[in-house]
Amino acid sequence: QAKDGCATMRVNGFTLRHGQAGRLSCATCATLRKHGGFTLLEIFVVIFIIMLLMATMFAGLSKLRARTAMGQARNLVEKCSSALETYRLNFRDYPDAGFEGKTGPEALYYYLVTPFRTGAVLSKGEIESTVNVGPLLSLDEERDTKVIAGKRIIVDPWGTPLNFQINTIKDAQNFDIKIPLIYSCGINRADDLAGGDDIIMGR
């Protein structure tokens, strides 16, 4: 108690007085005593808000990663499709559905990455051919390929093999027409061409 009748108190290192006109009222001092620190409820509210913000941020990052992977898969399918067209222009035809037992993803890797040469040097991995062409596709071996069952194949950003098919139909003159199909199974990794999220050449 101060000599002038005003009560004094210490709040955060400062001496406060009340009881005289123009100075802090008793209600104000009581408020200062009450809010000297955070209550348990206030702490819980702050933690909840922080957790909510973090969840929103992680959800946004997850969607961004998914969109990025989809873009990479689409780009890879388009690159393979362009390389296959280059093969057709050089050999005047699309490749067969299988070659020496190679089919599907293994055949795709073989046709697009193998160097075909006249007077091929086998020790360099070259294959004897009537034209000099290839490799038709430049790949990041660590990111875009994987060895499965001893066979190197092209994979999408989710590690799933790119699918490759050569379908044959008859034209009006009963000649065979080859129709290639290259696609990624997409983020769900399920082969559902009918209506799933597969990423198909030309779509």
Task: Report low-confidence residues grouped into runs of 5 or more.
Answer: 18-22
Helix-and-strand structural type? alpha+beta
Could you tell me the mean pLDDT? 81
Number of DSSP helices?
4
Q: Please compute the radius of gyration using only Cα atoms.
A: 35 Å
Give the total of beta strands.
Answer: 11
* Helix content, binned percent: 25-40%
**What is the molecular shape?**
elongated
Distance between the termini: 84 Å
Please list the strands of the largest sheet in the order they lie side by side: 9-10-11
Q: What is the succession of H and E elements? A: EEHHEEHEEHEEEEE
Question: Can you offer a commentary on this structure?
Answer:
With 203 residues, the protein is of the alpha+beta class. The strands form 5 sheets. A 3-stranded antiparallel beta sheet has the order 9-10-11. The protein has a two-stranded antiparallel ribbon with strand order 1-2. About 2% of the residues have low confidence. It has 4 helices and 11 strands; from the N terminus they run ββααββαββαβββββ. It is 37% helix and 22% strand. A hairpin with a 5-residue loop joins strand 9 and strand 10.
Structure, briefly:
The protein is of the alpha+beta class and 203 residues long. It is 37% helix and 22% strand. The chain is elongated and about 85 Å long.
Labels describing this entry:
203 residues, alpha+beta, three-stranded antiparallel beta sheet, two-stranded antiparallel sheet, 22% strand
List the helices and strands and how they pair.
Elements: E1 7-11, E2 14-18, H1 26-34, H2 40-91, E3 98-99, E4 102-103, H3 104-113, E5 116-117, E6 127-128, H4 141-144, E7 145-148, E8 151-154, E9 163-170, E10 176-184, E11 199-200
Parallel strand pairs: 5-6
Antiparallel strand pairs: 1-2, 3-4, 7-8, 9-10, 10-11
